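Example for tutorial group B:
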């Protein structure tokens, strides 16, 4: 299929590109189809904290076919990149092997989530026994596709949040992940772990309710990522009850998140949208809207749900001639009103109209 696309980039240029063998080309010949001139274009949306293998009900082994269906649905909603932050099995990796790359978003995936005994949802993580960081992180890096996910803290009944790994263990985990070609993501909702994870060199902080100014500056200096997953936090607060000790802690954390969003962007942190367990990957625009409602500037929101994630993962995203012809198009400018992100007019994947 030969498309001609006028790409109006929010806050940037307008480019005219044709497709040729699935890649962007300069205009040539007579196209089969042209998109309307008045379209706004992003390279794609990003869900930087997905669990694509999760079924609607409960935690159990993933289903490769259903996971592929979810990936296709995400693509149709304009999602171009999924960072899957692990599951209890390797369903997402199997899906990546079975569903061709032009029928789904790009996927990077952690393998089995790493935690300690009693330190995560029962059965969802793999217990890293004492002294086994090197062994388990290298295994997870080899099993996954680009990421290792580690649960930094988790509440214990009657005690509150407990730190799962020491800073020395986190530092070792980062080194082992890197040596095996993977990035390290650390889940943290409690107070102590963000500073430890940043100091240890973690690539992505998941939730990170208690990141300090100092942490954000250090994370930004090395181009690290922060995926606050606001809708997920709000869901957990609802489940725990606002007045429970956990609910109060997370509510305090959310105030912190709202205060930190702008500072993080200024510090160079890649603040990214993530769905986690609260909503599905094809709904990631809802998290972008939530960040906007929490006070993030619309242009920064567009960055969080697109460009910033592309930069953070080393993707070319400038609609360059010769690159894969990927784009999500909108009838209005999402950098003026992020609600537009939930309603793409067209989605192009490797030169093919998929929606
Ligand atoms: Zn998660």
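The residue assignment follows.
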């Amino acid at each position: 299929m030969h498309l001609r696309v006028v790409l109006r980039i929010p806050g940037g240029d307008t480019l005219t590109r044709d497709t040729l063998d699935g890649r962007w080309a300069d205009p040539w010949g007579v196209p089969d189809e042209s998109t309307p001139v008045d379209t706004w274009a992003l390279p794609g949306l990003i869900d930087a904290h997905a669990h694509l293998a999760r079924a609607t009900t409960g935690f159990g082994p993933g289903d490769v076919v259903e996971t592929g269906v979810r990936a296709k649905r995400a693509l149709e909603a304009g999602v171009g990149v999924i960072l899957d932050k692990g599951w209890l099995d390797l369903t997402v990796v199997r899906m990546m092997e079975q569903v061709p790359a032009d029928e789904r978003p790009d996927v990077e995936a952690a393998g089995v989530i790493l935690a300690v005994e009693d330190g995560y949802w029962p059965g969802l993580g793999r217990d890293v026994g004492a002294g086994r960081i090197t062994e388990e992180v290298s295994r997870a890096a080899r099993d996954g596709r680009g990421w290792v996910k580690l649960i930094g803290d988790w509440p214990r009944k009657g005690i509150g949040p407990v730190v799962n790994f020491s800073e020395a263990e986190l530092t070792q985990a980062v080194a082992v992940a890197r040596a095996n070609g993977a990035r390290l993501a650390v889940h943290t909702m409690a107070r102590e772990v963000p500073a430890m994870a940043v100091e240890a060199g973690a690539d992505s902080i998941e939730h990170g309710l208690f990141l300090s100014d100092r942490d954000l500056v250090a994370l930004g200096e090395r181009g690290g990522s922060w995926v606050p997953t606001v809708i997920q936090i709000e869901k957990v607060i609802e489940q725990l009850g606002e007045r429970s000790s956990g609910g109060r802690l997370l509510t305090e954390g959310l105030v912190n998140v709202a205060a930190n969003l702008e500072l993080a962007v200024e510090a160079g942190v890649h603040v990214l949208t993530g769905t986690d367990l609260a909503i599905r990957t094809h709904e990631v625009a809802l998290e972008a809207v939530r960040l906007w409602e929490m006070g993030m500037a619309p242009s920064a929101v567009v960055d969080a749900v697109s460009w910033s994630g592309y930069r953070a993962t080393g993707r070319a995203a400038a609609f360059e001639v010769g690159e894969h012809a990927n784009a999500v198009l909108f009838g209005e400018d999402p950098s003026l009103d992020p609600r537009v992100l939930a309603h793409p007019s067209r989605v192009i994947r490797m030169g093919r109209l998929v929606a």
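The domain at 1-43+318-355 is CATH 2.30.40.10 (Urease, subunit C; domain 1). Compare this with the pattern of hydrophobic and polar residues in the output above.
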